[in-house]
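Methods: example folding runs. The two proteins below were folded one after another, and each record is reproduced exactly as written to the output file, sequence line first and structure-token line second.
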Amino acid sequence: MEREENKAVQTNSAGTNQAAKTTQAQRIILGLALIGAFLGVLDTSIVYTGTVRMAAQLQLNSNALSWVQVSYALTYAGFMLVGGKLGDIYGRKRLFITSLIIFGIGSLAVGAATNALTMISFRALQGIGAAILAPNCLALLTDTFTGKARQQAIGYYASVIGAGAAVGLVIGGFFATFTSWRVGFYVNGPIALIMVIIAGRVLPTAHQQAGKIDWLGTILSILAMTSISYGLDGSPWPIPTILISLFLWVALVFSQAKVSLPTMPLEIFADRERMASYISSLLFSAAGIGFWFYTPQFMQGAFGFSPFLTALGMLPMAVLLFIVAVKAGKLVERWNNSIVMILGFAVVVLSLVELAMVAHTTNYWLLLIGTLGFAVGFALAFATLATSGLARIRPAVSGAASGVYNTARQFGGALGLAIFAAATAHLTNIADVFDQAMLIGAGLTFAGLVLVVTLIVPAEKH
């Protein structure tokens, strides 16, 4: 009898230890996914506050300087769908590690760049690494967590995505002022190496799907996404480029309907909530890029702030954004996902309108009110959009769905920049530009809010 009791105690102890190990492994996976997602977004915005120093050291003209960002954005957007699907086929672990290696090498090479060609080329390589990394980070979370734990993990993911853009501005401004803009890229190398070592030991070796790569779909998806991003932001012939892109998108959709393991499974778009979340994410990101892009310029042009002072001025917004995004899961539990999403969209609309109203003042505190409001709304909307974008998705296509969600977000940024550039091209005063950009952003966000109310809310009720 005593032996049986001892055996039962040992069994329970072993079960408890195994549960503890599982929890510890989940926490490490969560950390890896969040840091990976953070790095990709960080390097989108880290160049904004250091562009003046960068241009001076590398003797970059305005066109070359714009391509430092465009090259990263093009490959980031173009390889996103492929990156998610490759993770589904070959396993999350292998693609996660590969993407970190590509991103780390690209970052070190960018930091060491001595001319425009090497800078732009390795920014493109960096973008490829980030494009594979981003969807696999999100898919890692959906594969590892379920139920409320998944909602919380996605909330963390959304928080680092949102905060990454703001922190990139802060870090970029700090390094550009006190050390060198190169340091912001150099630090990615050691971080990526440490993550590769940890991932190799902790991440499970996932079961690989049978089948071959859909090469036609892969090539079409890269060309379609890259061409439309280029047509919207960078092409000297925007209309022909966009027309070619539309043809490529049509060809991609037709090809995906005829293969057994498509790069972009069309079943992802069959769910009304998911489809609406992708479009809403696109509109929301288009509006958000206006805030991230023009607010630092406004603070430096209208207030006369240095890059570092601009970074400090945006720091309260970055901190608040992260805190609210982390707490968003509790609000979702109390109400529901769509209600919190509506609240986030509404707060962003009001905040952007407020920022437009104070564009012709030189009062930082009035600007701060709008940036803090934007932080709250952005955090709430972003966290809940990510959840809706992966609602009721099969694990076998979770990577592809994550790629679609991230592609919509990335494409929204390119679309937003094109809209803002076209709408403000005739303006020369930074206050007028900022005013116009904030109003356009409010309009785009309101359009997304309409989609949430008319499509996502009814879908959640069913």
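Second run, written to the same file directly after the first:
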Amino acid sequence: MARQNDPFSQNIDWLTLLLYLGCVTMGWLNVYAAVYSPEDHTSLFDLSTNAGKQLMWIGTTVILIICILVINHTFFDTFAFVFYGFMILMLILVLFIGSNINGSRSWFKFGSFTIQPAEFAKVATALALAKYLDVPGINLTKQKDLLYIAGIIVLPCILILASNETGSTLVFASFAIMLYREGLPGWIPAVGLSAAALFILALVFSKLYIFLGIVVLLLLVILLMPRYNRTLPNLLGIGLVGLMMMGYVAGVDFFVNNVLQKHQRNRIKVLVDPTIDPLGVGWNVTQAKIAIGSGRLQGKGFLEGTQTKFDFVPEQSTDFIFCTIGEEHGFIGSFIVVALFIALLARIVILAEKQRTKFARVYGYCVAGIIFFHVMVNIGMTIGLMPVIGIPLPFFSYGGSSLWSFSILLFIFLKLDSRRAGAMWR
């Protein structure tokens, strides 16, 4: 009977747990490599370094995980909206009493440690979405339900954006993956992807070429339509869509030059032309690609990265931790890390599909979407395929807020999944 209250006797998915432990361990070792100095010979356990502090964060994370596994699974369902409301309050408070770090007022500072509420807001929003979508009768084809869901997602986005934390705001777009799985009409994500593609094209090519491309595309649509659908209203509708697309493309320059802040414009410019100002705004991306490329197939070896030792890559233990992996462990090491994340994401999706409750399934897809977005953007920005928006690599980047939030996010789902497996204590 005693073992029923033991969190380690529950039917936790051990494969997911092993993948998680692999990510955390490799992350800690690479944080150590990123801050290692051959002159100082600092230890892995030196609490004055990022590696030592990360170990302390790992220790506190274990305590959080045990708490999650001990709590009854109904707690997360029952108090989902309470968590959401609390995090909204924290996002408001941080605007007034938070510390400004790197131009972003999004941190609570306690001595030498900092906590970023935006990281935990993703967990709270995932729980709130799962709770709302679990209500019988909710349908993503209904306008009212879509508006409520949009409100749940947009509210924290507005508050996070107000703290000048653009990267964390963009992560909330990952919830579209879950919404599509739950029945979101396909045209909505299609419009979003088309808008993103047109935005990038407008930055790279002449507007005239894009306009001609839109005209050709619409003519092809009309020619491929069945003859009986070529009615005047349909043709006018297609023409209106074309005009809206052209207007959107024409407004991209105004948005970039007059709405975005200077550092945001610079990040977009570097994405479009990586050679621009290599000693200035392009420094991070240029040095990151040099570090990863210099690792070649097998890498230079653990603690042997020259780009790392001489601090060529800024923020290498946080946002650019993947550079350390690429330089010291090469293509093979980078492939192993990517494969590890793919396996973790695949396992989460498989478990989500097996859930007996909609709440658990929706939450599982939220977990997969958030982790996928972080991995895709973080690795993409270090190799020049994504703009540098400053989001961490899950379980690898240095930082307590990041490690805590991703661990809480994952283990709440594992707790919900253990109920499905039939080994949950009552």
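Comment on the second run: The CA atoms of residues 293 and 392 lie 21 Å apart.
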